[in-house]
Design a protein that fits this description.
heterodimer; A: 315 residues; alpha+beta; CBS-domain; Heat Shock Protein 90; five-stranded antiparallel beta sheet; 13 helices; rod-shaped; B: alpha/beta; Udp-n-acetylmuramoylalanyl-d-glutamate--2,6- Diaminopimelate Ligase, Chain: A, domain 1; 5 strands; 18% strand
Chain lengths: 315, 114
């Protein structure tokens, strides 16, 4: 029996280990990637009245103060409000600005900025390069926007990676790699018809095949499976051999056999009994669908012995 | 257009997969022959048919269709609905004919073909 204490300890440990994508980004992103580069500044001799207009027009809450290009202080809307209350709106910025300016370096990670915001409770941080020159401004809004942008880029890149080419055995390298999936198909078992195809589809998705390839295999193996369910006296076997460059699927049964293979391949030709046609099967399109979905198809049959259908899809 | 909107506008009954109606409908396909659906229906399409057995769910699931509209009052049986719930395939029913339903879908802007 687990005590409440134990449960709480485990929960805390689990939470400590959980590094979210967002936390990852905070450690990876550089401040220069998210900061605002267009910086509005004022000079020490400008009045607070002037500052008020700069803040209002540009919809910002504070600016750095530069004298001859050097960062000498920082001043915010809070200073403006206090000045208005005291009737000192025409005082020079130099009189009211904060001298001890907290800054961050452009090449530091967002983590450093988050720490400073957390510790000091500032609304904004000036960003300087390693020579001490002002290169941008950073607010917490900039951080949020920057992270959202990066998440979108990462997601987009992952989508491209997924669609570019099948990379089924990406990190599994050998001189000959193959995965064999075998499914037994029971005759006339319509309640499970399509299950093999569905499982094969899921396996391929798991392995990282592109959606286009997965669809072609799903359709072709469904048709092969259905043919076994409908026509094979004792059912049969569907085997998928998955290799890095191609997937080969074989559907095999032990009877009754196809009298005329070329006729069977004709679109619209079907020997399905009426009761099966009423279910919507027997359109006679199975083999042509398989042909359309695959790169190679071979059908061999011998009456009284069985049938072997093979098709290959290149990756 | 989301499948939910189709359900509302066509007054369809939701028999299964009611939690998956937020899907975007990419187009429509109508046929009662399963192989034809396999060949031509596209992911996200809504499939109009009067077939009401288990295998329509298998097909819809494999092709990742938005949902199935079963017409002419054909009632799907318990096994079919159970499979549909398990696989997350919306099964919608109506007493109207396939022809009528397709007409309404087209009027809503849901096209057929690639």
């Amino acid at each position: 029996m687990v005590t409440i204490e134990q449960a709480e300890k485990e929960k805390a440990a689990g939470q400590a280990l959980e590094v979210t994508k967002l936390q990852e980004l905070v450690y990876e992103l550089k401040i220069e990637q998210v900061m605002t580069k267009e910086v509005f500044t004022v000079g020490p001799d400008d009045t607070l009245r002037h500052l008020k207009d700069v803040l209002r027009i540009n919809r910002i809450s504070g600016t750095p103060v530069l004298r001859n290009g050097e960062l000498v202080g920082i001043i915010s809307i809070e200073n403006v409000i206090k000045a208005l209350e005291a009737g000192e709106i025409d005082a020079p910025v130099a009189e009211k600005m904060t001298l001890d300016v907290q800054t961050v370096f452009a090449d530091e990670t967002v983590m450093q900025a988050v720490n400073k915001f957390g510790r000091f409770g500032f609304g904004r941080l000036p960003v300087v390069n390693r020579d001490g020159k002002l290169v941008g401004m950073l607010t917490q809004g900039d951080i949020a926007r920057g992270m959202l942008r990066q998440l979108e880029i990462d997601y987009h890149e992952e989508e491209i990676h997924r669609y570019r080419a099948s990379h089924i055995f990406e990190d599994i390298i050998s001189d000959q790699t193959g995965l064999i999936l075998r499914y037994n198909v029971r005759p006339r078992d319509f309640s499970h018809c399509g299950e093999a195809a569905s499982r094969l589809k899921r396996a391929l998705e798991r392995l990282g095949a592109t959606p286009n390839i997965v669809r072609r295999i799903a359709v072709a193996s469904y048709e092969a499976e259905t043919n076994l369910v409908i026509h094979a006296t004792n059912g049969g076997q569907l085997t998928a051999e998955i290799q890095p460059e191609r997937i080969r699927i074989v559907a095999i049964d032990n009877g009754p056999g196809i009298p005329d293979v070329e006729q069977a391949k004709q679109p619209g030709f079907s020997t399905a009994p009426d009761w099966i046609r009423e279910l919507g099967f027997g359109a006679g399109m199975g083999l042509s669908n398989i042909k359309a979905c695959s790169d190679e198809m071979q059908l061999e049959s011998k009456m009284g012995v069985g049938t072997r259908l093979q098709f290959v899809i290149k990756l | 257009m989301k499948l939910q909107e189709v359900v509302t506008k066509l007054s369809l009954s939701v028999q299964a997969g009611g939690d998956k109606l937020d899907r975007e409908v990419t187009g429509g396909y109508a046929s009662d022959l399963l192989s034809c659906v396999m060949a031509r229906a596209r992911k996200g399409n809504v499939w109009v048919t009067l077939q009401n057995h288990l295998n329509v769910v298998a097909v819809a699931s494999l092709l990742e269709l938005a949902g199935i509209i079963i017409t002419e009052g054909a009632a799907p049986d318990a096994a079919t609905l159970s499979k549909a719930s398990a696989e997350g395939v919306p099964v919608l029913t109506t007493a109207k004919t396939t022809y009528a339903v397709v007409g309404e879908l087209v009027r809503l802007g849901i096209q057929g073909g690639d």
